# Entry
Amino acid sequence: MGIKRYTANANTTITNAYKANLQTRATSSNMGLADSLEVFHIYGQESSSSAENSRVLIDFPVTTTITSDRSAGTIPASGSVSWFLRVHNVAHPSTLPRNYNMTILAVSSSWDEGTGMDMENYSDVGYANWTSAASSSGGVTAWTTAGGDYHASTTGSTAYFDNGTEDIEIEISHLVEEWVKGLSGGAKGNIYGVGIRMENESALSSSYTKKFSARGSQYFYSRPTLEARWDSATKDDRGNFYYSSSLAPAEDNLNELYLYNYSRGRLVDIPGIGSGDNINVSFYASTSNAPSGSKLLLPVGGGVVTNLDVNATGSWVSTGIYSANLAITASATPLTTIHDVWHSGSVEYHTGSITPKSLNSSVQNSVSQVVMNITNLRDSYYRNENARFRLYTRQKDWNPTIYTKAVSTPEIYIVESGSFKVVRLIDDLDVVAFGTGSDMHTQMSFDSSGSYFDIDMSMLEAGYGYGIKFALYDGGAGAWNEYPDVFKFRVEE
# Structure
């Protein structure tokens, strides 16, 4: 699963609004421990031209967890991952503005969360507040500009609200990657989170009031998060390997093969190979289930640079995993079995077996007509688990003879484009939504044994039942079709 969530480690509301007496502004008020956050603009309440504003500050664990996860490879490198700010609406009985924009900016000065809670009378004095960012034994640190210090507006993003009840879910990859680079002397060396405010704080009309859930909320899935999304799918064509065909475009004639190097049950790099492109794969005909004869000639494409070369160049994917992308042309009499031999020079590392298929224009890809089952689904999981689920899929219309049914099992149907989501059963809340658009963060991997995917159980709240649902892409219809069955499990602490 290509998704990782980081809950805010600090948040607060700061305001210059008038208190109930309409004489004193709440510029010293702190609301760091309140269970909600508030953004508004009020015009003309104290006088015909008075303006009052409320802003939100949210910080995330960039310098600790996020950077260490990037270093460990838990999160892909910059350019291969998208970052989304997610802040959730809170329903309230007050008026609600409509048809407005909010601006999200990077905060440029350090600030304290504070311990205040009063969002009605603004009675809790503390830091951060509208005029001051933090306090220490050395005294109070004021903002350079009242209302908070921010980087230039060109680094910001804008969220639009139509009816006013929407959540914020907006990509801020440019900000997060600048924060991460800042740790090593990059674009921004100050990593202090984001500020959220009304886009037009000088408007001659009011926008009152928008509330969001804070990190102290009792509602687990409503807390502010920074979400990393990427396509983590591994598509190993070993069980779905096709000979080149004039019926398919060049890119569809390429097959992706993977080599997994396990030592004592864990993935390790092959000594001397590392992360370089110094591993090759060659193909042989099969005799007595073993490679025989000379290396097969490969057409140009993928890891084959020169036409009719006998070696395809492989590449390092991650620790202990290597891949090669190539096409292969069938002979006058297509081979029923071929062998892939992974090597570096004369040193051979692995020999595999492949049963190639031939593309036929009469074959229809009816992915909506399948039978699915999670073969290793358990009743419950713990939150410290990163669980891998194996999906068995076959064509729904498999209709064997009595003899075939007695001596064989149906061929595994490889789903080349499938996605999953996770819902909370009690209220059908989408805990992890389908990744079926530009963000394919829940796209399933597949190998010769079928589809599989991982779920990081730490993203799920313990004590609830959850369901996994699937959507498969129908290339003929150009649409995603949701599979009707739900596969249920529970998460325990």
Observations:
- The chain has a mean pLDDT of 91.
- The CA atoms of residues 42 and 206 lie 4 Å apart.
- DSSP finds three helices and 32 strands in the chain.
